[in-house]
Amino acid sequence: MNRFRATALLLALALPCGLGGCAAAVVGGLAAAGGAGYVAGQERGVNGIAADHTVKTDFENALIRTDPHLQAGIDTTVFQGRMLLTGRVATPAEKAEAGQIAMRTPNVRAVYNEIEVAPQESFWHDARDTWISTRIRSEMVLDPKIRSLNYSIETVNGSVYLIGSARSRDELGRVLRIARYVPGVKRVISYIDLRSGVPVNRGYGGAMPPPAPMAGPAGAMPVAPGPAVPASPIEVQKL
Q: Which one, of 84, 87, 71, 93, lies nearest residue 111 by Cα?
């Protein structure tokens, strides 16, 4: 979590009533309020969540040992051994170094390096990004056909990154539509897998064509050895 995140979250939770819906204001506390029920409700299960937490902790500790400043600019999300890196660093070398550390972390199945090389965001930009993530989460919670517990959301400079597991193509389409049309979203990058393990093709909503062989995205670095992981993201541009 970067240096502005905690404060920005408090501000963001105070904003939604004037920016498109009071529902988002209650979402930030759902995970904390749900406690063990929230954890157990995720389809990856308690053991899966614990394993992902260990992977995240090992990676972040390795970053701190390498360069505490580097760790401060990077947000880490791990879902079923797949690691998504977001945030901002000052140089391409720092981005590459973070990716290499992630690849060496035990039990990592794939690394999606979406770190931006740019100056750190201002407080207001960070607050806006946090509000976007909160608004997306609130809309997902309110949709009875989406199991929102199975998704993680990160927003950087208006770019929304999604990782998780969808139970069906219809659910996947609903998640992408919600993210796409939240005010302030510039693009949506999805690393969501279908629960069956079928790779997600590039596309948006509705019916999708049959799976076809695809090269991995520039930011994705599959880790070997280990099971194959569908790593082709969907990039949804605004209309």
A: 84
Distance, CA of 108 to CA of 225 (rounded, Å): 10
CB 221 within 8 A of CB 111: yes
| Residue with the two structure tokens 């999805």 | 190
Chain mean pLDDT for the chain: 75
Model-wide pTM > 0.90? no
Please report how many Cα atoms fall inside a 13 Å half-sphere around the Cα of residue 86, on the Cβ side: 25
How big is the CA angle at 153 (ends 13 and 76), to the nearest 5 degrees? Answer: 110
pLDDT of residue 137: 97
Distance, in Å, from the CA atom of 139 to the CA atom of 177, rounded to the nearest integer, reads 10
The set of residues, in sequence order, having a beta carbon less than 8 Å from that of 110 and lying 6+ positions away, is: 81, 82, 83, 220, 221, 222, 223, 229, 231
Residue 101 pLDDT > 80: yes
What's the CA gap between 43 and 197, in Å, rounded? 14
Q: What is the largest CA-CA distance in the chain?
A: 49
> For residue 218, what are its two tokens?
């520039």
Other CB atoms within a 10 A radius of the CB of residue 66 amount to 15
CA atoms of 130 and 182, how far apart (whole Å): 12
195 exposure class (CB count in 10 Å sphere: 0-12, 13-18, 19+): middle
Peptide bond into 225 cis (omega under 30): yes
Task: Say how far apart CA 16 and CA 137 lie, in whole Å.
Answer: 12
